[in-house]
Structure formats: C-alpha cells, structure tokens
Amino acid sequence: MTADLERIDREILRLLQSDGRLSNAQLAEAVALSPSACLRRLQRQEGSGVIEGYAARLNGAAIGRGSTVFVEVTLSNQGHAALDAFERAVAACAQVLECHLMSGDFDYLLRVAVADMADYERLHRQQLAAFPHVARVRTAFAMRAVVPSRGYPL
Q1: Could you tell me if residue 146 is inside a domain?
Q2: Each residue of 77-90: pLDDT tens digit?
Q3: Phi, psi (degrees; rounded to nearest 5) at 55
C-alpha cells in the first residue's frame, strides 16, 4: 500500500502519526494544500483503511500500569478450535495490550501492562494460565523501553 501513496499523502500520515490532534487546517498548512483538498485526502486514507482510527498514547506508570511484560504462550495443540478458543479468551483480557500469533518456538506473544510483579502473578494465576489449551507460559519483564512505540516509517 505504501508504494501507492503520493508524497503529500505520506507527509499527512507522518504528521498525524506524530500528532494525531492536528486540525485539518494545521495539516493543510503543513503540506501546502487547501483545507478542502487536505480533508479529501485524509478521508480517502480513512476510507481505504490506511488510517484505522485515532487514539491518545497514555503513560502506563501514570495510570498504575508501569510494568510491561512480554509473555510467550505455547498451546497444547494448534488446531483451529484451540487457536480460536485461546484468541477469544485473550481478547477478553483487558491487561493484554497486544497479542500476536507467532511462528517459531511458541504460538503467541503477548504484551501485557501490569502495576508490578505481584499484579502480574495475580493475572498469571487467575487468567493467563487458565486460558484454554495453554501448555506453557514464559514471561519476561521489560526493564525499560529503548525505542517506545512509534509510527510506521513512510
């Protein structure tokens, strides 16, 4: 999809990734377009699915979720029913920020937000280990984010 984007579209997307609160007037001025032309381009990117939505980035520590945990999950089998059951359960767990189906030595990689190690232990005992078809859970606590979440290169 990136190859299909014109230079101005890429610049609009780059600007929005760094500040999603920019007004259409500010975007238009930054890319040297009229507000109506800029809005049409923006709506085209939203309509085509390039822009999936808008959200605020929160500070985990400020909201009591200062620890990031990466969790490798191996299932007891990889049949469709097992995968579907696990994915439904993990999608319902609010502390799971991301869940990726993986290739390699484990089946899923989760990024989890918790307050501290005790909070993770509770989550592990009450939810993660109880998810359907879980055979093994391996956990790694992030010490700090070296490159925090950022936008895609355009």
Answers
A1: no
A2: 999 999 999 999 99
A3: -155, 160
